[in-house]
Each structure stands twice: as C-alpha cells, then as structure tokens.
C-alpha cells in the first residue's frame, strides 16, 4: 500500500456540495500534502472542518446569534419576528488556482508549498475571530481537495483561457496569457410554444442557456484558438490588409487581434467565430473603429 492510499484510508469522509470530502487531523496534513504531490496530484482547495458530535462540517457557529435587527417607526422600536431563531456560521477556506501556461509539474509543486502554509493560517484566522465559538483543537480537521492532471483537464480544460465570468460549461468572458479576450455569446431569446398534458397552450420567452455540453464546446474552441493563435493571427491580419487595400490603398494599417467573439446560432449547431482587430499604426489613432473578420474553420473568409 502506498503512503497516499494509507492516508486515504484514514481520512474522515463527509458530504458537502453533493460530493464526498476528505479531511484529516491537522497534525497529519503535512504528510498527506507530500503524498499527494508525490502522486502528481495538485491541491486546489483547503478548508477547516469541525467535529460536531461525530459529524464533520465546515460551518463554525457563532458563540451567540447577532442581535435581531429592528424597524423603527416614529418613536416605537419593533423587533423583526422570527429572526432570533436564525443560526449563524462562518467557514474558513482557501483556493489554489493554476496559472495560465503553468506546467502540471510546476503547479503540483507550487500547490504543495502553498497548501503547507494554509492550514495554520486558516487556524489563526479562526482563533482570532471573536464571534466564533472556538472548538478544541482536537475537534478541528482540514479538508483537502485535489486533482490529477487528467481530472483537472476534464473539469477546467487545457489551461489556455482563464474565465473572468462564467464557468467552462457556461462561459461568458475569458482571456488568455497574451491578453486576447474571448467573448462567448448565446441565442438571445428562446421561444417555445405547445400544449401541456392538459391541453393548455403555453409559450416561453427568455434567455437561452447552453443545452447539454454546448457551453463546453464554446470554451474548448476558445482554447483551440489560443493554441493556434500565431497562425490564425498571421492569416487574419494578412487577409484584412488585402481587403483594406481594395478600398483605401494609400492608407497603411497595422492590425492586431484583440478579441474573438464566439456565438452559437439559434439551433445550437454552428459556432460563428469573429476576430476583432485594432490598429497599431501610430499615425492612425484614433481614425478607425475596430475591424471585424469572420472566420470559417479558423481561417478568414469575410471582412465585416
């Protein structure tokens, strides 16, 4: 049995966020971290957990509920009904995020070093929180969450595009290490009509969210674009210069891609990719608006 398997057998298990979590006493955490790193697992989050009568939870209760808010009407103060029964908790956790372009080996070692320091930092935060009922140190454990490289890719992708908004299954806006933006767009409206089982007519108008794995299709395509960016950029800029010379041959331009718009059609089948370019020519600023070039199979086909 490997050291990692031995640690996993001794882990305390509990459910949180619809998944099983693993936690260990604080004294064992350094050895668990080393075993995970030796197995090329990267730690992505940690949290303190507390043993409440044999059950683990990441919710640390307040020593006393905060005073109930009051509504003042004239000179009369009216307590808000039902507020006194509300329970108050606080959690103590940290995440470790992989840097864009960071190799898996580097991420594993960096997460190992970061994770080694975090349990004591979280414990210090807990013990200095005056509102928390501090449990005995023996009742405090640390939860670790980790991924292998294959698990990380399945959940987060190829580590080329960082999402500022949304998630891989429903991306909204991202950026790669070159600073190129990726804007993900979906059909604006969904309109469905029909009849219920009882025969009543219905109609739905609303914002369309990705169906099935469609959102992930957008994100994976963005990562493919980022991987092939040098070739795509060269082709798109050369195409734009040729098209521009047909209109204004005397104007010299120096286009550069700053953004890609990736948009699903109404049937969730075809993805339209448009490159957005700016002009780097010093004498033209700010003469021209941004240029837009339509891509097909990641090759330029039309100046929009």
Topology, element by element:
Layout: H1 3-10, E1 12-16, E2 19-25, H2 29-38, E3 42-52, E4 55-57, E5 60-61, E6 70-73, E7 76-79, E8 89-90, E9 93-95, H3 104-127, E10 140-147, H4 149-156, E11 161-167, E12 170-176, E13 181-185, E14 190-195, E15 201-206, H5 214-227, H6 229-247, E16 255-264, E17 271-279, E18 291-296, E19 299-303
Structural features, described:
The structure is a single chain. By secondary structure, the chain is α+β, with helices and mostly antiparallel strands. 27% of the residues lie in helices and 36% in strands. The protein has helices spanning 3-10, 29-38, 104-127, 149-156, 214-227, 229-247; strands at 12-16, 19-25, 42-52, 55-57, 60-61, 70-73, 76-79, 89-90, 93-95, 140-147, 161-167, 170-176, 181-185, 190-195, 201-206, 255-264, 271-279, 291-296, 299-303. It has a seven-stranded mixed sheet, covered by helices on one side. Strands 1, 2, 3, 4, 9 and 10 form a six-stranded antiparallel sheet that branches. The chain has a two-stranded antiparallel sheet with strand order 5-8. Strand 14 (190-195) and strand 15 form a beta hairpin. Mean pLDDT is 84; it is low at 73-86 and 189-207.
Indicate the low-confidence ranges by residue numbers: 73-86, 189-207
Give the count of structural domains: 2
Q: Using DSSP, what is the number of strands?
A: 19
In terms of quaternary structure, what is this?
A: single chain
What is the helix content? Answer: 25-40%
Radius of gyration: 27 Å
Count of helical regions: 6
- Global outline: elongated
Amino- and carboxy-terminal Cα gap:
62 Å
By helix and strand content, what is the structural category?
Answer: alpha+beta
Strand content: 35-45%
Mean pLDDT, all residues: 84
Profile the largest sheet: 7 strands, mixed
The helix/strand series, from N terminus to C terminus, equals HEEHEEEEEEEHEHEEEEEHHEEEE
Strand order of the largest sheet: 11-12-13-16-17-18-19
């Amino acid at each position: 049995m490997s050291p990692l398997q031995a640690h996993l057998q001794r882990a305390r298990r509990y459910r949180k966020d619809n998944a099983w979590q693993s936690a260990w006493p604080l004294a064992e955490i350094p050895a668990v971290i080393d075993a995970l790193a030796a197995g090329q697992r990267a730690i992505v989050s940690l949290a303190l957990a507390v043993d409440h009568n044999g059950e683990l939870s990441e919710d640390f209760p307040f020593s006393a509920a905060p005073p109930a808010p009051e509504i003042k009407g004239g000179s009369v103060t009216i307590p808000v009904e039902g507020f006194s029964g509300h329970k108050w908790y606080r959690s103590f956790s940290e995440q470790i995020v992989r840097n864009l372009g960071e190799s898996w080996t580097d991420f594993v070692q960096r997460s190992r070093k970061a994770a080694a320091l975090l349990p004591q930092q979280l414990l210090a935060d807990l013990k200095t929180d005056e509102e928390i009922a501090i449990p005995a140190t023996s009742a405090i454990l640390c939860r670790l969450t980790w991924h292998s490289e294959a698990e990380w890719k399945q959940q987060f992708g190829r580590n080329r595009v960082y999402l500022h908004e949304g998630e891989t299954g429903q991306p909204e806006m991202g950026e790669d290490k070159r600073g190129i933006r990726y804007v993900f767009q979906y059909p604006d409206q969904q309109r469905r009509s029909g009849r219920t089982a009882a025969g009543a007519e219905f109609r739905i108008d609303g914002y369309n969210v990705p169906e099935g794995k469609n959102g992930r299709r957008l994100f994976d395509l963005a990562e493919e674009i980022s991987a092939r960016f040098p070739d795509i950029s060269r082709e798109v800029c050369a195409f734009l210069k040729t098209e521009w010379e047909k209109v204004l041959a005397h104007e010299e331009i120096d286009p550069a891609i700053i953004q890609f718009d990736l948009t699903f059609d109404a049937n969730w089948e075809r993805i339209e990719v448009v490159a957005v370019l700016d002009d780097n020519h010093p004498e033209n600023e700010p003469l021209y608006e941004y240029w837009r070039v339509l891509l097909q199979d990641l090759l330029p086909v039309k100046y929009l």
